[in-house]
Amino acid sequence: MDFEMLNSGLKLVEEASGILESISNEPGVTPKQFYKALDLKGIFEKARREVLLEAAASVELALSLISEDNDPTIH
User: Fold this and answer.
1) Could you read off the pLDDT of 17-72 as tens digits, one per residue?
2) How far, in Å, are 7, 21, 51, 63, 64 from residue 73 at the CA level?
3) Domain encompassing residue 21
4) What global pTM score does this model have?
5) Distance CA 43, CA 60 (A)
6) Residue 44 main-chain phi, psi, to 5 deg
7) pLDDT at residue number 69
8) Which residues have C-beta within 8 Å of that of residue 20, sequence separation ≥ 6?
9) d(CA 65, CA 53)
10) Which end of the chain is more exposed for a tag (fewer CB within 10 A), N or C?
11) Is residue 54 a part of any domain in this protein?
């Protein structure tokens, strides 16, 4: 297992979660809202924006699945 790559992925998910929390503490953040938050943080490099958006989508999907089964949660 490539632990360095795994660690990098986890850091991206953590960063995306922090950005999501800066927008809202509830699931349902739109890509437009997320890109605006990236702009405000000065993150303009296309590849970085894309991987952060994918990480954020994963977090949002996980939250939507969890909130279907349990009480809603925060990021």
Assistant:
1) 999 999 998 878 999 999 999 999 999 999 999 999 999 999 998 887 776 555 55
2) 24, 12, 23, 7, 9
3) 3-69
4) 0.80
5) 20
6) -115, -15
7) 57
8) 29, 34, 56, 59, 60, 75
9) 18
10) N
11) yes
